[in-house]
Amino acid sequence: MTAPVRPAPDAAALLAFRTTVLERGRELYRDLPWRRTRDPYAIWISEVMLQQTQTSRVDGRWQRWLERFPDVRALAAADPADVLDEWQGLGYNRRALALHRAAQAVAAAGGALPSDEAALTALPGIGPATAAGIRAFAFDLPAVYLETNVRSVLLHELFPGEEGVSDHALAPILRATCPPGEDGPAHDPADDPRAWYYALLDYGAYLKRTVPNPSRRSRTHARQSRFEGSHRQLRAELLRVLLARGRDGGATADELEPALAEALAAHGREPIGREELLALLGELEREGFCRSSNGRWAV
Fold it and tell me: How many CB atoms are closer than 10 A to CB 125?
């Protein structure tokens, strides 16, 4: 039997929702380092780092990244191996390569990160949510910023008890409730896109600590696959070995194999054979993480 479709919230319900979120946002506000800047580059880096990563892990790493690569041009000019090295421990190494490629595209276009959604999402690694975060937090522009904490608030307040709620049902609510920003009439710094989404994020983080995670009722919710013992872990450990041993002239498979075995042993994993090692190296090479020449592998 198909569940009944809940009608869209009316104007009164949306007004009550906004009032609740803004009140809770003021109570629960988190003074995070990336909230103390409006630099689009710095905010972009924070948005990418925070994807599927706890805030506590990003605090410190974000600052260190900006010390090493302080702006778009510095990141664009960096060696990819240095970018990957700085990213280690943040997971999903593809994001680091995408950041580097996007920085090169932005630098080639003049060095200013765009504020237009289409221009942002045309860059490597920037999807709709990241683009919306940059627009709201760096440029104070209205956006549909759908991420897990925001979903938690929408589901908790407006879809209690409903399962499998789609983003298609949530996005119009954000379009209707997000304030216009600095260019709109009667701009209110306490209720602009930047403040609005901070309130949603902080209320959502609170809900996930205090009630059964509402975002699990989203149709987009998927459990993150286990890292320990996974193929992702193999790739990550091999990349770390390459970063340690595959600089300059690179390293041979004979040199990489025992180093990887040692790295895997630290996680209680058995070593892999030469054939699997070469297959992994080929996989990383195809994705741009390393290159081979005359039997040597380098990042």
Answer: 18
Q: Two tokens at 88?
A: 């280690």
CA distance to 4, 15, 101, per residue, from 160 (Å): 13, 17, 42
Write the CA distances from 188 to 171, 180, 194, 196, integer angstroms.
23, 10, 11, 11
Helix (H) or strand (E) run with residue 252 in it: strand 251-252
State pLDDT tens for residues 156-191: 999 999 999 999 999 999 999 999 977 677 788 899
* Sign of the CA dihedral running 250, 252, 253, 258: negative
Do residues 166 and 154 touch, judged by C-beta distance below 8 A? no
Residue 110 token pair: 């003049």
Tell me how many degrees the CA angle 95-101-106 measures, rounded to the nearest 5.
Answer: 120
Nearest to 289 by CA among 217, 214, 236, 224: 236
**d(C-alpha 238, C-alpha 257), whole Å:** 9
Return d(Cα 254, Cα 280) in angstroms, integer.
14
> Is the torsion defined by CA of 184, 185, 188, 191 positive or negative?
negative
Q: What angle do CA 5, 11, 13 make, to 5 degrees?
A: 65
Residue 121: phi and psi, rounded to 5, are -75, -10
Q: Which pair of structure tokens corresponds to residue 297?
A: 């592998």
Provide φ and ψ at 105, rounded to 5°.
-65, -40
Residue 201 structure tokens: 């994020």
With a CB cutoff of 8 Å and minimum separation 6, the contacts of 181 are 139, 140, 141, 142, 187, 192, 193, 194
CA distance 172 to 168: 7
Measured CA to CA, the distance from residue 52 to residue 290 in angstroms comes to 25
pLDDT per position as a tens digit, 201-245 = 999 999 999 999 999 999 988 666 677 788 999 999 999 999 998
